[in-house]
Amino acid sequence: MTTTSTPGVTGVTASEAQPDVAGAGRASRRGGPGRVVAPVRGRRRKPRVVANTIAVVFCLVWVFPIYWMVNTAFKPADEVTTLTPIWLPLRPTFENFTRALTQDGFLVYLRNSAIVVVSAVLLSIVVGFLASAALSRFRFRGRRAILVAILFVQMIPSGALLIPLFLSFQTLGLLNSYIGLILAYVASVLPFSIWVMRGFFVAVPTEIEEAAKMDGAGTFRILWSVLFPLVMPGVIATSVFAFIAAWNDYLTAYVMLKDQGMYTLPVWLAGFSTNKGTDFGGLMAASVLFSIPVVVFFLIVQRRLVSGMTAGAVKG
Question: Is 127 exposed, middle or buried (0-12, 13-18, 19+ CB in 10 A)?
């Protein structure tokens, strides 16, 4: 090691006398001496915080009507009609639920809704499963035209099809009958069911079917034992959609049915609004009771969404 002699400076080595080029370069990349640039992780966290904030706002907007429905269902009449919003019932009561349950025809309308909705869901699943299997696994003339027609029908509002359905069912003598209402619901949800389940069929490898054929399985055995478990998530999704669409429908049931003894629960809910006014407490309590079957149905079937993904690929 050598030393240099500089006027006024003694004992300085040559390496110490040379400028720190690397350190200067690092300092320039950091934005200059004495400046600390924020870490990249902090910059990436900002868009995530904004996205989470927007999601929370949308969730609050979605949850608030449900909260207000349940909140109003437990309020007495004077708290329901007050001009000042009451965020929690000051004197909770079950009077509204009692009045809703004891209203004329509740059990009859509940039975009618159960018959119509269960039948519509089962029929839409069977027809949609077979139709989607045919459109995804078989090649025949007009297949693409059928797919385009299904997609086109799905884009048409259901209200626009109500008058043609009414005239057709009137000619066939299906008005004021459970069968006519069930067929109307199936016709409204079937395009969606076919389109969704076809996507699940397309995602299933054809090698699984070929392996089943080599084992001696026939067409219906392959459909039921192999393909059906694999497309179970699609079946569950379409069944939930069909259940909600049929359970919540008011207009179709009101138009297709003339006998009040055959009305469904949505028509029964409209009975809380009369010429004398609207019973908001009873209406909210009835709406809570009306929503329970949908929640229960979803909780029952949601476990099958994941378990059905690989069940059909296991040879038992």
Answer: middle
